[in-house]
From TrEMBL:
InterPro entries the UniProt entry points to: CheY-like_superfamily, NreC/VraR/RcsB-like_REC, Sig_transdc_resp-reg_receiver, Tscrpt_reg_LuxR_C, WalR-like
This protein's name: Response regulator transcription factor
Modified residues (4-aspartylphosphate): 58
Pfam families: GerE (PF00196), Response_reg (PF00072)
Domain of life: Bacteria
Residues in Response regulatory domain copies: 7-123
Record keywords, A-Z: DNA-binding, Phosphoprotein, Transcription, Transcription regulation
Species name: Paractinoplanes pyxinae
C-alpha cells in the first residue's frame, strides 16, 4: 500500500458540477483532485500532460463525449482508470460505457463515500457499480445464452454478425442488442452493415427472414 493520495481528474461539461465535485472530493480522505475538464478532448490533453490515477467522467458532453473519451483513455493511457458519473442509467449508456473500458458506473445520486469507494476500487483494477446499474447488469447476464450456431456459418458471417441477426429477428433495437451483447451501439451498427452486405439484405425485415431461414434463431 502507498500513502500517496489518489490523483483524480474531474470531467463534466457543467462548470457548477465540476466545481461541486471538486469541492466534494477535496473533503474525501486520500483523494487529490489534480484538474478538471469540460469535455473529453480537453481531458485527453490534460491526461497526456500529467496522467491521473482515475478519471471521474460524465457521459453527455460536447466535442468528445464520455464513451468516446473513455475508449481513447483506455487505449492511449492504459494505466488510467475511468469511473463514470452520470444522470443516465439506461441499457445503451451502460453497455457502451462498459464496452469502452470504464471500471465503475455511478449515477449522480451517489454520495461522497460511494464515489470515493468507486475511485479507489478502479485504481485497484476492480469495479463498483451503482445499485440500479448492478441490477440491470444482473438482469442482462440472466438472459438465455445465445442459441448455438452451425460450425460453418452461411455467406461468410462471423459469429457476432450471426448473433446480431438473431437479435434482429427477435425484434430488438440496436440499443437493446448492444445491452444484450455488452458492446457499444456503434459496434452493433458496424456488425449490421457488414452482415447486410454479406447476405444482401436491404432492411431489418429481410435480415430477420434470413436469420429464420438459416436457423440462426434456433
Amino acid at each position: 500500500m502507498t500513502d500517496e493520495p489518489l490523483r483524480v481528474l474531474v470531467v463534466d461539461d457543467q462548470q457548477l458540477v465540476r466545481e461541486g465535485l471538486t469541492a466534494l472530493l477535496e473533503l474525501t480522505d486520500g483523494v487529490e483532485v489534480v484538474g478538471s475538464a469540460g469535455d473529453g478532448k480537453r481531458a485527453l490533453e490534460l491526461i497526456a500532460g500529467d496522467p491521473p490515477d482515475v478519471v471521474l467522467m460524465d457521459l453527455n458532453m460536447p466535442v468528445l463525449d464520455g464513451v468516446a473519451a473513455t475508449a481513447q483513455i483506455r487505449d492511449r493511457f492504459p494505466g488510467v482508470a475511468v469511473v463514470v458519473l452520470t444522470t443516465y442509467a439506461d441499457d445503451e449508456s451502460i453497455a457502451g460505457t462498459l464496452a469502452a473500458g470504464a471500471r465503475g458506473y455511478l449515477t449522480k445520486d451517489a454520495g461522497r463515500a460511494e464515489i470515493g469507494m468507486a475511485l479507489r476500487a478502479a485504481a485497484r483494477g476492480q469495479s463498483l457499480f451503482d445499485p440500479a446499474v448492478a441490477a440491470r447488469l444482473a438482469k442482462a447476464m440472466s438472459r438465455p445464452a445465445a442459441p448455438p450456431r452451425p460450425d460453418s456459418l452461411p455467406d461468410g458471417l462471423t459469429q457476432r454478425e450471426a448473433e446480431v441477426l438473431s437479435q434482429i429477428a427477435r425484434g430488438r433495437t440496436n440499443a437493446e442488442i448492444a445491452a444484450a451483447l455488452f458492446v457499444a451501439e456503434a459496434t452493433v451498427k458496424t456488425h449490421i452493415n457488414n452482415a447486410f452486405a454479406k447476405i444482401g439484405a436491404r432492411n431489418r425485415t429481410e435480415a430477420a427472414s434470413y436469420a429464420n431461414e438459416h436457423g440462426l434463431t434456433l
